[in-house]
Request: fold
Amino acid sequence: MKIVVIGGGAAGFFAALSCKMHHPDYDVCILEQSDKLLAKVKVSGGGRCNLTHACFENSQLAKFYPRGGKQLKKAFSQFNTKDTVQWFESRGVKLKTEEDNRMFPVADNSQTIIDCLMREADKLGVVIQKMIAITEIRKIENDFILLTNGKAPSTARRVTADKIIIASGGSPKIEGFNWLKQLGHTIVPPVPSLFTFNMPNESIKKLMGVVANPVSIKIKGVGTQNSASLRSEGALLITHWGMSGPAVLKLSSWGARKLNAMNYKFDVLINWLGDKNEQQVRDWINAELKNIGKRQVGNKNPFLLTNRLWLYFLEKNEINAETTWNHLKKKNLNKLLNTLVNDCYKAEGKTTFKEEFVTCGGVSLEDVSFETMESKVCHGIYFAGEVLDIDAVTGGFNFQAAWTTGFIAGKLGRSPLK
Ligand SMILES: Cc1cc2nc3c(=O)[nH]c(=O)nc-3n(C[C@H](O)[C@H](O)[C@H](O)COP(=O)(O)OP(=O)(O)OC[C@H]3O[C@@H](n4cnc5c(N)ncnc54)[C@H](O)[C@@H]3O)c2cc1C
Reply:
């Protein structure tokens, strides 16, 4: 039995290794279009590879995936974060968990992950061919013919296979999926996920480098299936072009499609005090007045906000920083409270987050059985990784999806057609 894996990234390697582990007698070959293997693994996590996340409960883990969470929840019962940790550690890659639960190799070097995958591929006899791009797949009875535009002189223009695992990653353009559409698959149009907000006309940018944590942010007038508003919590970083940080990235991921439809022009509502509402803050200030009443508002910031941000809020509301808390006019206090819990900034564009970006969209999850990762429209074709309409927030979840779907695809189980 000849198995061709298309794509030499995380999902393709893991699928090929799983295939050899489950079917040692099969010929397994990875075809990679470029001259580099595991290129994204190399640059991932700032060169350290954040390969998974220390979340060991499948239903909790699934909640980090704006697209694909429901399907992955089932898939995690076959291979989850615990299995990832065990898989790498049993092959000599020691892992560590950072404070925010992201997991990295102890060596803090993505090369250790690459070396491990390459070593396993060599040990199990996976054949790897670079510089072969698949341009078309034809099914003739039960066999497949793959047309290639092989750049290497010795490369054949046609490759045959009994089964194919497609792990070709995401594409920013829908045309990049045409060869999969030709096989009958529905393609969910790709749009960027994990981006930061550009705010060309907001003066808050002068505070670049300032972090507020935790804040609660939402997009004005945009809801989700489960909630009236699209919102997220966490740290917010002010940058020289607008806003970034985990809270912003999370929101960009959950709102990827809606924000794209709005052409990245929207109002961001910020509660700088996290989960406190206006009345709670007002009551708190009133109770504190006996302690802080005689102090100047500019000198006494009663919240865990940086002084630069606090002074900016006073300036924004035209409050003299030398006014004492006791002399702060009711009208000014009201304005200040509104800024603290319901501040509004105009986003006009986005910037791709360089550390970890993914595309939302790809092969529709409706077309794939998550028991086996086999296509429901074309028997013998399996999918793994980012080629599918699966993506997650930052934190190691995108690689976890690649390991999980790759592992299952490599088993080559059979599913009924649609
Ligand atoms: C800069 C950066 C940092 C990241 N850091 C992290 C991180 O720390 N943690 C995390 O969880 N996620 C991270 N991600 C996301 C993660 O890298 C991806 O989700 C993951 O690599 C997807 O793996 P994949 O194998 O599905 O796709 P890819 O890694 O994209 O691999 C697909 C491969 O298929 C090849 N290919 C495509 N089409 C064809 C074809 N027709 N024929 C032959 N070969 C083909 C491509 O050349 C490529 O090598 C990061 C992403 C980026 C861009």
